[in-house]
Amino acid sequence: MKLADLSEFRRVVFTPGSAPDPRTLRKWFDEGRIEGARRIGDNRFVDLDEFTALTGDSLVDGVLRDTNVGRRRLGKNADLEDNLYFNGRAYQYRNPQTGRWKSLGQEKARANAAARKLNRILDKEADLVARVLETGEKTVGEVVAEFITDYLPNQALSQRTLSNYLGYYRRYQREFGQRMIRGLTRTEIGDWLAKLPSADSYNKHRTRLIDLWRFAIARGYVDDNEPEATLPRNQSKRIEANRRKRHRLEIDQFWAIHQLAPAWFQIAMELALVTLQGRNEIAHVRFDDQRGDHLYFIREKTEEISEMAFIRIRMTDQLGEIIGRARASGIASPFIVHYRPAKMKRDQMAAKKHWSQVTPNHLTRTFKRLREETGLFDDLPANEQPSFHEIRSLGARIYEQQGYAKDYIQSLMTHSDKKTTEIYLESGRQALTDDHYIPVRADLALDTLR
Predict the structure, then answer these.
(1) Contact, 142 vs 176, CB < 8 A?
(2) What angle do CA 112, 116, 119 make, to 5 degrees?
(3) pLDDT grade, residue 242 (50/70/90)?
(4) What is the mean pLDDT of the chain?
(5) Which structural domain range is residue 36 located in?
(6) Which end of the chain has fewer beta carbons closer than 10 Å to its terminal beta carbon, N or C?
(7) How far apart are alpha carbons 221 and 148 in whole angstroms?
(8) 118-137: pLDDT as tens digits
(9) Which stretches within 181-250 are classed as H helix?
(10) Among residues of the chain, what percentage have pLDDT more than 90?
(11) Pairing between β-strand 101-103 and β-strand 63-70 as defined by DSSP bridges
């Protein structure tokens, strides 16, 4: 298939002086007088591969005349490929889509060969345009929107997992949402994955993309699962590239970032430092998780543990002071760490349980922005600068420096329980009693660190 719109058809088919005017040509098209005519949407095209000649009656200025007009070139260009011309000095190629000229040198054979390649590329582009307009091919962004609306809600996902997944898929909308999903190749996908900072990130994105392409196959938008054809990354720590390269966060750097942070993020930083919980736990802990003299946490599965962790931290004056500041924010929120978004976008609100909730990714981005504002890490590559996760590591080191036993610290950081995990997954949080939570302490006082 080689599609040309009417203006291009008029230029390449008719010799100068023999072409009807555009208005007449449109009428001619609409009356079915052009072999290979195709209407795609509101646009008129002619398939030049199907068009051979116009014989017999043709309309010129409304008068029927006997013609025999074919798709032919002037004599001096008869032995040249389509769109190739000789100006007396060199061979020039005219891009039929843009009208721009490009010199192809003075050797006819080489110029013809180059013109053939260029014409083949343009033929493929025209064919793609036709398929998009005729069959309603989808962009990646459109498929992601359908996936989020029609597929994800029917999966047995926790709110936290759903929120994480939405973060992945919105990134794909931003990064290549305008690309036709059928035109995105495994090579391009592999190149994009290869730029991710870790093997873990690579494999997680690969899995999410595989799911998206499976959905697209089921909808008939693509035939092959291009992401699945890429190779997974080995995450073994024996591989140098997989070993953590992040520099430690020191306490003076913690306070430098803390000083620049808004009040809500200061609360997040302090809570992470004292309790040794990760960003997911900090983002999801609620005021009603403080029951009596304990603060309850459910820690999701991590790389270090295979099951979830269930702990209840005995309240201290320090924890009470942090939570008290959170309550005094003036925002009626169920979450201890919360804020007032500058803009409330519908898709972002849909991923939250409350409009004021902070997502784990927002914690990461905010820490990164504040870290860069300090200028303390400008001499380090971006992938080696400390992240929000390093607050937890810093807290563990401080506990150890202050003489707390390693078992004490470990109980705060990870304490998995397979049986309790099964109860939680089957019946939810309401089925858990105090006996299911491991009692721990978090006695760090921030005043001792300033």
Answers:
(1) no
(2) 135
(3) low
(4) 81
(5) 3-135
(6) C
(7) 16
(8) 888 876 665 555 555 544 57
(9) 186-194, 199-219
(10) 40
(11) unpaired
Burial 418-436 (b: 16+ CB within 10 A, else e): eebbebbeeeeeeebeeeb
- Rg of the chain over Cα atoms, rounded to whole angstroms, equals 32
Q: What are phi and psi of 310, to 5 degrees?
A: -125, 110
Looking at 135, 170, 188, the residue that finishes a domain is: 135
Residue 42: what pLDDT? 64
pLDDT at position 15 over 70? no
Q: How many residues does the chain have?
A: 450
Can you read off the two tokens belonging to residue 264? 């809500």
Sheet holding 37-40, edge to edge: 3-5, 43-47, 37-40
Q: Do 202 and 117 share a structural domain?
A: no
Transcribe 258-296 into DSSP letters: HHHS-HHHHHHHHHHHHH---HHHHHH-BGGGEETTEEE
| Residue 266, both tokens | 């200061």
Structure tokens that stand for 353 in this block: 């349980």
Domain finish residue from 221, 242, 263: 242
Residue of higher predicted confidence among 163 and 386: 386
Number of domains in the chain: 3
Cβ neighbours around 236 below 10 Å, total = 9
- DSSP notation for 111-150: HHHHHHHHHHHHHHHHHHHHHHHHHT--BHHHHHHHIIII
Distance CA 400, CA 404 (A): 5
- In sequence order, what E strands does 17-52 have? 37-40, 43-47
What's the pLDDT score for residue 216?
95
CA dist list (Å): 366 to 9, 150, 332, 371 = 56, 32, 22, 8
CB 285 within 8 A of CB 335: yes
CATH number at residue 186: 1.10.150.130
Specify whether the CB–CB gap between 144 and 172 falls below 8 A: yes
Determine the pLDDT at residue 54: 47
Give the tens place of pLDDT for each residue, 274-294. 999 999 999 999 999 999 999
Q: Are both 267 and 168 inside the same structural domain?
A: no
- Tell me the residue type at 6: L
Q: What is the 3-state secondary structure (H, E, C) of 402-427?
A: CCCCHHHHHHHHCCECHHHHHHHHHH
Max CA pair span of the chain:
104
For residues 235 and 431, which has the higher predicted lDDT (pLDDT)? 431
Q: Are 308 and 421 in contact (CB under 8 A)?
A: yes
Q: Considering Cα of 181, then 183, then 186, then 187, what sign does the dihedral take?
A: negative
Measured over the CA atoms of residue 431, residue 435, residue 437 and residue 442, the dihedral's sign is positive
